[in-house]
Structure formats: C-alpha cells, structure tokens
Amino acid sequence: MSAAADARTELFIRMRPRLQALGYRMLGSVSDAEDVVQEAYVRWSRLDPMTLDRPEAYLARIVTRLCLDHLKSARVRRVSYVGPWLPEPLVTDAGWTSEPVAGLAHDVSYAFMLLLEKLTPLERAAFVLHDVFGLPFEDIGATLARSPATCRRLASRAREQLRRREVSPLSTSPTSPTSPTSGTEHPVARVFMDALQSGDLEALRRALAEDAVLISDGGAKARAARRPILGRERIARMFARLSAKSYRPHRLLPARVNGLPGLVVVTSDGPTGTFALELAGELIRRIYVVRNPDKLRHLSATSTLRANREHL
Questions:
Q1: Under a CB-based contact definition with an 8 Å cutoff, are residues 190 and 206 in contact?
Q2: For the chain, which terminal residue's Cβ has fewer other Cβ atoms within 10 angstroms, N or C?
C-alpha cells in the first residue's frame, strides 16, 4: 500500500465516528448511516487527500449529499409507513450510570430526532451541520450548493421551529426532555423495569406521569399500537392486557437508548424491542418503544452490553 493510500485510510478512520454521527442525525437510522459512510469511503478511496485543501470538510460534504439523496426516497417510504415512525434506536451503553458522551447525549433524544423529521431536508442539513457540528456557513453553502446567507436562513428557520416546540439540542431547560444524568441510577427506570418483569401494574402506574404518552413503532411487522397511547391509565391498561396474555420479555437489559434511560428486550431470537424513557422529575412522561425488526438488526445481545459510542 502506498504512503498516500495509508494517509487516506488513516484520515477516514479518524473521521468515521463523526461521519456516522452526522449520518444518524440526518437519517434517523444507524444502518442507513453506516451504508452512507461506507459509500463515502468508496468515493474517498479513489482520491488523494493530499490534493484537497480541507479533506475533513470534503468528507462531511460527501456524507451530507448522500444523506440528502437518501432522504428523497425515505420520505416517500414514511408516508406509507404503518403506525408511528420512530428513528432506529441508538443503544450506546449498558446500564444507566455510565458517563454520557459530553455534549452529545441530548441531541439524539427521540423528542429531538422526531422534530428533525419535521424539517425539510435542506433545513435539517443546515441546522445539523451548523448548530450540532459547528461548521461555518461558508462550508455548508458549498455542501448544499446554496449561498452562505441562504444556509443561514435555513438554519434559522429550523432553529425557530425547534424553539417553538421548546426543544433544543444544546439546552437542558425544564421544558426540554430530561437528559441523562451522569452517575444516576434513575430509580423510576428501575421501577418500570421491575414492574414489566413482575407484572406489578400498580407499581408501573405509580411510575408514570398522569399525562404520559407511549409511542410504539412496529411498522406492521411486529405487534404495536397504531396510534400513541395517551395518559397513565390507558398505558397501564395496555400493559394489563399484555400481562393477561402472559406476555413476559425473556430478559430486559438496562441501557442508554438515544441518550435516555432505557431497556433492550432480549429473547432467544435476539433483541426484539427497545424502550426509551423520557423523564419529568421522578416520573416517566414519554415511552418510546421500537419493535419493528428491521430497526433492530444493528443490535445484538452482546452489543447492548458494551459501549457503542462511534455512532455518537
């Protein structure tokens, strides 16, 4: 292998975690982000990075453009999606007490990722590249084939939409989703897990906020509610019905799921679902459940037991 090829590979390996992080925020899919980054590498391998003034910016440009191409088809698929659509779960740590990656735990929360879905692809790209990854608008303009002023307006519109919904990736204000607390066991998450395993519905009811919401994504490929379930009592009744049918997960593994305290459901067939719990004080106010097997393929029983930080 030539010295130029060695340098090219080394630079890409160093950039890969950041590129996958960009791809996930653009697409809401771990597997699609990996495919995009792999395609970027194929294109990158044909170049000599020494001929580029700023190879890192060039790689970010390739990945962003590939994501924009992918979103054109992805949005068509989501229009016909059965039931609520949730991003693929990003399982980054086993347990609830590990140290989150500084500055990046909050901007992959389900609340934030779902709001990104409401933006146009160009708004999403401009906002993510500038507000999350800190790229200057001059670079973003070159990536999106727009003027820096236009990109600034795109990011501003995106920021305003998020502000109206009181969610920011760079803030942990009281109105924002509760971000993980370093070194905290999250007692309510433990109560929730124990209640699911034991069938103690009264304990589960006490763990939920009165206005709690459960959103489940089965994609017509696994049993899941076709509409959000609103309110503590309705959620409790749903779990009561599952309990009456002798539904018991084989094993529940505590984990960080999209930066939130969560659970991975594991059976003899492997992971069959994830829970992500958005907290309001000492109560659960949102439960995000992913059961679509297509969105769980990137998980394995072993991968949930170790850090998988490269996607952050």
A1: no
A2: N
